Structure prediction request, 338 residues.
Amino acid sequence: MVREWDPRTASSAEIASLLDTLNAVLAADLPQDPPWRESSLREYLAEVMPGERRIAWIAQGEPAADGTPGAVLGQVHVLLLGNIGVLEVLVHPSVRRNGLGRDLVLRAARRVYQEGFESIGVEVVGDTPAVAFYESLGFSREYVETRSVLDLSSVDWAELAEMSTGVGAGYRIQFHPGGPPDELIEAYARAKAETQDLEDGELRPSSYDPQRLRDSLDCLHRRGMQPYIVLALHQQTGAVAGLTEVVVPAQHPTRADQYDTIVVQDHQGNGIDRAMKARMLLELRSAEPQLTEVQTWNAQANESMLKVNAELGYRTDRDWCEYSIDVAELVHRLDATR
Ligand SMILES: CC(C)(COP(=O)(O)OP(=O)(O)OC[C@H]1O[C@@H](n2cnc3c(N)ncnc32)[C@H](O)[C@@H]1OP(=O)(O)O)[C@@H](O)C(=O)NCCC(=O)NCCS
Prediction:
């Protein structure tokens, strides 16, 4: 049975059952990834940025003879933002290839269409069944990034300490757990806005104006995700010359996610990228002692960043692709194959 589902009012048993399915999916498709925990999972699913909406459905197995509700065997949610719906679908490995994935996509696609949105986008992990699944539904590949993972046990901390100080004269590297301080929010947002062009194709929303940046930090906190920021301050002008962002999610606190890393064009060539990332790892070592890995995503074209990541010890993991499709076309295609 598939039904619309609101994580804010869902029972604890449903949240726990969804977590079991998510971890079964990870074990089948991404066995090297750490399993998720229940901490803040409800908030992770429920909280959104102002102006955005997430709508979800679950597929539940049959109830037991004593009335105990069936397990959550599948889930779809769609995040409505701008003119796009960003989709996520999960089907428990034990019930795959029975049409449930397609059925869940149809539910979400119909709603996205009714709400007047134009297209649907989805992140698809390379070398998993999701690639053939979305291609069979007519989605096309728009953008590819490579995920890399750094195993912190392989890091040479003394070398890293050296790297963290190797920045050109006139710059100060600063660490800010929780987000940039209020007096730097404007300069921080400006640095992000200047490099906006480089981030075309991202489904992950970035924050280019001060209010959106504040909202985005607030949203991360509400979702149980702790942001850490290292920035390079150009002392002469007070400009933020570079920044790097890492988030430690309560749901998988041993593996952190690297978000944006930016060096503003005028300040490139001063060792800022390397120094900021090295400083970040040093700070995380004491701020988040349970952390064992950091994962990052880069476009293949971004050679300088890939080089720095390789120096830091990141190993290439797998492709991470963005697919999209016109909503009307998807609904039509799915209705026709029912
Ligand atoms: C992708 C996924 C949702 C598919 O669910 P599903 O219920 O098995 O999909 P369906 O049965 O509706 O499949 C529809 C079509 O997709 C294609 N397809 C799905 N899985 C496939 C596979 N493993 N190999 C080849 N084609 C596949 C087929 O064309 C299939 O039609 P068919 O079975 O009639 O041949 C499921 O594998 C899943 O949950 N994957 C994890 C997704 C994810 O987000 N992971 C992130 C963390 S890893």
